[in-house]
Amino acid sequence: MGKFPLADEALAQVWICRKCKARNKAGATKCRKCGSPYLRPKHREIKAKK
Ligand SMILES: [Zn+2]
Q: What separation in Å is there between the alpha carbon of 35 and the centre of ligand 1?
């Protein structure tokens, strides 16, 4: 979890197209940009710099 709950929530609702990396809303079955069905949820935890 990051410092910003709102940001975490927003990230959790974003799905990324595996093909063109466009953002899609959670629950989307196809990419809105290229129509690809290959979506993945955006990772909630972002790697922090070490
Ligand atoms: Zn796409």
A: 6
Domain that holds residue 27: 5-41
Q: What DSSP designation does 46 have?
A: P
pTM tops 0.70:
no
40 dihedral zone (left: phi>0; alpha: psi -120 to 50; beta): beta
In a domain, 32, yes or no: yes
Residue 50 lies in a domain: no
Number of domains in the chain: 1
**Ligand 1 centroid distance, CA of 50 (Å):** 31
What's the mean pLDDT when you consider all of the chain? 81
Ligand 1 midpoint to CA 43 (Å): 17
